[in-house]
Specification:
heterodimer; A: about 130 residues; alpha+beta; four-stranded antiparallel sheet; B: about 270 residues; mainly alpha; two-stranded antiparallel ribbon
Chain lengths: ~130, ~270
């Protein structure tokens, strides 16, 4: 029987490229927006949105009004080229359905801004 | 279990980003890119293209499973073919997940769109296989044939062989679609016409700007590939040889080329 070597040592094809890192500014801006939404701060959120996304961003802030948000987190991040989609989840202590929203962040004059904002609490991103 | 799952009822984990095709296109346009798929000259082309295919394989697996479940009165052999396709697509999804890691990506790096699942929205099995097996899997033949040539230009045998392995299955899936579309519509020309029209709508949806033609006639442009500058396709050609193997007739391919080169869905 020929020596076929130790299977566990066979590494197979190795990656030909590195994973792209998410810019730290994206995470920082996303966390700031999540915080603003949880506080219902529509004015500051609007300031972080490009003009055509302002009303949707403002509506996000209103979605949390009257709720005492306790937990908030980034549920997922994906990208389209150099724009980042961030899905966030906010929960209060009452056990009510969490607020789920998705934003698209892209650089605009050197700042990470909201280009799109969607409230997904009661719908899918694919709802027409 | 509910039959005929609507586009926005397809389940995905919470930690996963879904985006509608319209919004995805807008995101590309906002960055000065062409609205449709990533093309070979883009920086992240391989990652984005393989990701789109991987998501397509997952949805194709779900679609074949749904065809099995949605049409319980279809012939037993039809159901067997759909079951076989579920198995094939799940293996393809795994292959593409591995290829994503190979090119420095992962499943979930890019959003998933609804566009492929939207092609399942029909309640006739003949239309379903015309749209999914002949329309979408036919497109897969085109995309995979291009990817194989691209890998050959890059000198990358891992991508070349992996995609070639998957392409062999896709050709079989298209053949199954052609067989069942014709068999289910035997003696019913009106039904056959509806199935062919359903497929034509899907073919038009994926004509990528209306400039698609055969591989031999596709415009070549200079672009960066694997660190080298090479001449390569400006768009996704129609893979004539693969489609002939898959059971498309010369006439059907010519019709597809004519339609794809004149209409602009995006």
């Amino acid at each position: 029987m020929p020596d076929l070597g130790n299977r566990a040592n066979v590494m197979g094809p190795q990656p030909i490229a590195h994973r792209a890192e998410i810019p730290s500014g994206v995470i920082a801006t996303a966390n700031k927006i999540i915080d603003l939404v949880s506080r219902g701060d529509s004015a500051d959120i609007e300031a972080l949105a490009i003009e055509r996304a302002r009303s949707d961003a403002e509506a996000l802030a209103k979605a949390s009004s009257g709720r005492d948000i306790r937990d908030k987190d980034i549920a997922a991040i994906a990208r389209t080229n150099k724009h980042y989609w961030i899905k966030a989840r906010l929960s209060d202590a009452s056990g009510a359905k969490p607020i789920v929203f998705q934003i698209r962040l892209g650089e605009n004059d050197g700042r990470w801004m909201i280009w799109e904002a969607m409230n997904l609490t009661n719908s899918s991103p694919w709802t027409r | 279990m509910q039959r005929f799952i609507a586009v926005d009822r397809l389940a995905r984990p919470d930690n996963y980003i879904m985006v509608s095709m319209d919004k995805q296109r807008q995101a590309r346009v906002d960055q000065g890119l062409a609205p449709f798929n990533a093309m070979p000259y883009e920086e992240d082309f391989l990652k984005a293209r393989l990701h789109g295919i991987c998501a397509g394989e997952v949805q194709a697996m779900e679609a074949a499973g749904r065809s099995l479940f949605d049409f319980p009165d279809a012939p037993w052999e039809f159901q067997l073919d759909m079951a076989r396709q579920v198995w094939d697509e799940s293996r393809h999804a795994e292959i593409y997940m591995k290829l994503l890691e190979y090119v420095g990506s992962f499943f979930g790096e890019f959003p998933e769109t609804e566009v492929l699942w939207s092609c399942t929205q029909v309640d006739d099995p003949a239309c379903r296989v015309a749209g999914i097996n002949r329309g979408l899997e036919g497109l897969a033949c085109d995309v995979f044939e291009q990817l194989i040539r691209l890998a050959q230009r890059m000198g990358d045998e891992v991508i070349e062989r992996a995609v070639d392995y998957v392409l062999a299955d896709e050709i079989t899936h298209v053949r199954m679609g052609s067989k069942w579309m014709r068999k289910l519509c035997e003696g019913d020309p009106a039904r056959l016409k509806r199935a062919e029209e359903f497929q034509a709508n899907i073919d038009n949806l994926f004509n990528f700007g209306g400039a698609r033609t055969t591989e031999a006639e596709t415009k070549q442009i200079r672009q960066k590939l694997g660190g080298k500058e090479v001449e390569f396709d400006a768009t996704i050609p129609i893979a004539k040889d693969a489609r002939l193997l898959a059971g498309f007739s010369e006439e059907e391919i010519e019709r597809l080329v004519r339609a794809a080169s004149r209409s602009a869905a995006y």
